[in-house]
Amino acid sequence: MLGRHQGNDRGNSFDLLRHFAALLVLFSHQFALHGLAEPVYPFWDTYGFVAVAIFFSISGYFMPASFERSGNFIEFSKRRLRRLLPGMMVCSFLMTYGLGAVYTSGPKWDYITSKFAWVTFLQYSTFLGPAIPGVFANYIYPNAINGSLWTLPIECVCYIAIGVALSFSRSWKVILAILVGSILGTASLVHTGTGFSFYGVPLNYLCMFGICFSGGALLSITKATWFPNRWLLLAFGVVGMFLMPGKLEYSVLGTLGITLAVVVIGESFSEKLVNGKFDISYGVYIYGFPIQQIVINEVTHRFWLGMAISVLIAVVAGYLSCRFVEKPFLRKSRRARASNGTAVVGLPEAVQ
Hints:
Structural class: mainly alpha
Distance between the termini: 20 Å
Number of domains: 1
Order of helices and strands: HHHHHHHEEHHHHHH
Shape: globular
Strand order of the largest sheet: 1-2
Number of strands: 2
């Protein structure tokens, strides 16, 4: 049966790992947006992909506890949407009506009141946004407004898969089945080089990041079993991360190794700087790309200076999103659950 998620008595460092991953995404994108090749993790992909694997591992780890406290699939889904949609809708509004109005070549009022702008806003709000004519058209990396958003539909599919599976059974076996399916799917797609996308969800990356998500969820449910031997598990994770001989092995075992390392480190070490106080990683993630585009092309072409300015602005944007958009919706949800006698104790606000 699905057990109650228990953190160690000293707390954890998952919030810090989230923020590290968000900054790693900015670092990787800084190269691409300068027209340079992004640094590549050996045999696999860019460090931006490593950061995404960290995000998915952490999200998956907290989802079984979130589902248990939700009680059913509908309530679980509502909580996931409350976590993602408010911040994304504000970001979408700023991209569509802010950047779109600034960069449009036609009359601004005609653009703002157009059906195209309204439809574009709705598309971005549901994680699918087309290029807006004129926006970043002449930049080094042209026409890309927010290249980070492609992972959000994948995350939503992972939520649905975990929610549906746990709706039928609270056993660890259903999560293991998803993990095995993700491993087999990844191995097959990497080996054959095939795949397709549906609703912005590339099947190959759904399977690969599904390893991280379902692997994290399985570790959450089985924590009582592995935690006493967590350093051995960490050793397996490090071997998977650094000693794989090629892309196929790394895509499967290396990705799983990232999950093992992230979960063991997150549960084994405590930090007091950000743990439980704030989580601006989501805001940094969804605002970082357009901020970097503007800074690189409008402010400075100097790599590290531009990086520093972008990080500073993205952190401010992430804080504002967390403080004035994300937290109010999460607190409203918490108050509603408290009034129904279902308040959550011990689970980070960002994943409830």
